[in-house]
Design goal:
alpha+beta; Rieske Iron-sulfur Protein; seven-stranded antiparallel β-sheet; 8 helices; globular; binds FE2/S2 (inorganic) cluster; binds fe (ii) ion
Length: 370
């Protein structure tokens, strides 16, 4: 089977192959619900944010009625990007290349020197391609192919599990954005590995948690680690909406393919997501959220940044190690269980895509032979 080592884990080639990486961009990201940003980043009509989902440039825009929409960020004339970064475009999007102008509903409104085309152009033929968008707790997701299950189903038990944290009503706090010299899948494996917590994070967070009480639950598209905190680490005023494991420690919630939402007993949350930027490079972003808009976030940011550096360091070490021709993955610990959700789903999507491609090729050959 494609990219699978003898023990069922991802084969080392998958972490170093450019072709494998390209297949992930083409098939894994477009077919999934991918987190693209926080709703509070685009609060006003005309606010936009540009992101890339796999290979697809995506533009999220708030329309004049306050509704969020997602479009392919590609001009239908000659494919220029329509917008970059974040900003406000007013009531219309104007392509920076030849000035085609689009409404925030995606319709093409105006074309400079329209009568000069070699054949007449009907503006209704050239609107922006709208993409499927949905929002959960203020987190904006896009599904490029449009055929993923509804977001609420895709998130499995997470909406119920994190309901008490009331993430949608939190204020935005610290934001970190860093490069890592490692394949994004190594970074994801590490992000949802709980086996390394006591070693890599010995100096930062290991003392806060009861590693022996750690529990992992896995689904098809999500996986949850409930990590009980030591008494001394618990906040003096736990968030009143929390019960059960949410009140006793942190909940690390993975959403396939590249998002991790961590809910804390204080009621705060951390959103972490990792975007591939090449077959051996990844962009790591972290957003802290809190119910206390006036909280001094410096101490928390310092700790977060330290934990990130500890993780980056080990990911970059693994990227060098997976180049070795003598390496194949060793046994899996129970505290690495969440990795199976990530690897299994990714490999299934690629297998299915290859099957479809094979069938299409067979069909063409059969047709040619007639
Ligand atoms: S590429 Fe956008 S107007 Fe020509
Ligand atoms: Fe870590």
């Amino acid at each position: 089977m494609l990219g699978v080592a003898s023990n069922g884990m991802m084969a080392p080639e998958a972490y170093r192959s450019e072709a494998f990486y390209r297949a992930e961009l083409d098939w894994v990201f477009p077919s999934s619900w991918v987190f693209v940003g926080h709703e509070q980043w685009v609060p006003e009509p005309g606010d936009f944010l540009a992101e890339t989902v796999g290979i697809e440039p995506v533009l999220v825009v708030r329309d004049p009625d306050g509704v969020l929409k997602a479009f392919s960020n590609v001009c239908p004339h000659r494919a220029s990007l329509l917008a970059e970064g974040q900003g406000n475009c007013g009531r219309r999007l104007v392509c920076p290349y030849h000035g085609w102008t689009f409404g925030l509903d995606g319709r093409l409104l105006a074309i400079p020197r329209q009568r000069g085309f070699v054949s007449p152009v009907d503006v209704s033929d050239y609107g922006l391609r709208e993409l499927r968008l949905d929002v959960w707790e203020g987190l904006v997701f896009v599904n490029v192919t449009g055929d993923a299950p509804p977001l609420i189903d895709y998130l499995e038990g997470l909406p119920e599990l994190l309901a008490g944290h009331d993430i949608a009503r939190m204020s935005l706090g610290a934001f970190l954005d860093d490069p890592i010299a490692a394949n994004w899948k190594l970074v994801m494996d590490n992000a949802i590995c709980d086996y390394h917590l006591g070693i890599v994070h010995e100096e930062s967070i290991a003392d806060l948690v009861e590693l022996e009480g750690l529990d992992e639950q896995v689904g098809d598209t999500t996986a949850v680690a409930s990590v009980p905190w030591k008494e001394a680490a618990m906040p003096p005023d736990p968030w009143p909406g929390l019960t059960g494991s949410a009140a006793e420690g942190s909940l690390g919630c993975f959403v396939f393919p590249n998002l991790h939402v961590i809910g804390f007993p204080s009621g705060g949350a951390t959103i972490m997501w990792w975007t591939p930027t090449g077959h051996t490079s990844t962009r790591a972003r972290v957003l802290s959220l809190s119910h206390d808009a006036d909280a001094d976030v410096r101490a928390g940011t310092e700790l977060l940044s330290r934990v990130q550096r500890e993780d980056f360091d080990v990911c970059e070490k693994m990227q060098i190690g997976v180049q070795s021709l003598g390496y194949s993955p060793g046994p899996m610990h129970a505290s690495e269980l969440r990795i199976t959700v990530f690897q299994r789903r990714l490999l299934e999507i690629l297998e299915q895509a290859l099957d479809r491609a094979d069938r299409a090729t067979d069909g063409r050959h059969a047709g040619a032979g007639r």
